[in-house]
Amino acid sequence: MSLLRRVRWTLAAVLLALLLWAALWPLRYPSRERAVDFPRGAAILKGRAIAPDRPPQLPAEIRLTLGVRDVLLLRNRDLSAHVFGQVLVLPGREVRLPFGEAGDYAFACDAAPDNTVTVRVLPHPDPGWQRLRWRLHALKEAVRELPVHGPEA
Fold first, then answer.
1. How many CA atoms lie within 13 A of 18 on its CB side?
2. Is position 153 within any domain?
3. Which residue from 25, 34, 54, 129 puts its CA 20 to 30 A from 139's CA?
């Protein structure tokens, strides 16, 4: 058997082992919290953004998963208070919102696009394809949220 063929079979076996691990291994995270920050300058004044050239500060949708990350941690790093649903998040404070049931929850929010944030709470993924899809989506989200830094001149 040629060396190239052995390398291909070895790579295929490693890929298969990784897929099996991702599909069957239990989900564990160091914290059940998913943090969302109100950054400085996210304040809204009388329906107009203080800085109209800045994009909305919070995402339109936040995804949580029961049993894995099912607590939404709101951190206000802004100098003014923000409203998230019926919760007032004061400057420099944190608020935790636990979720116990899967579903879509809409919250009014003054620092989000269209002043609405949808919290999508997904059920705990069962072992197999569902867990594999969940892990791939979590990997995609983690890569998408990586900070982007340009080259230093």
1. 8
2. no
3. 54
Tokens representing 90 are: 């004061």
How far apart, in whole angstroms, are the C-alpha atoms of residue 38 and residue 78?
6
CA dist 115 and 110 (Å) reads 5
Instruction: Let me know if residue 122 belongs to a domain.
Output: yes
Residues 100-120: pLDDT tens digits?
899 999 999 888 878 899 999
Segments forming the whole domain that contains residue 115: 3-144
Asked if residues 67 and 121 have their Cβ atoms less than 8 Å apart, the reply is no
The answer to whether position 38 is within a domain reads yes
DSSP state of 37: E
Residue 41 lies in a domain: yes
Convert the pLDDT of each residue in 120-150 to its tens digit: 998 888 787 787 887 888 788 778 777 777 6
Torsion of CA 48, 145, 135, 38, to 10 degrees: -40
d(C-alpha 2, C-alpha 7), whole Å: 9
DSSP 8-state secondary structure symbol assigned to residue 68: T
- Number of domains forming the structure of the chain: 1
Residues 31 and 39: their CA atoms lie apart, in Å, by 22
The CATH number linked to 89 is 2.60.40.420
Q: What is the pTM of this model?
A: 0.65
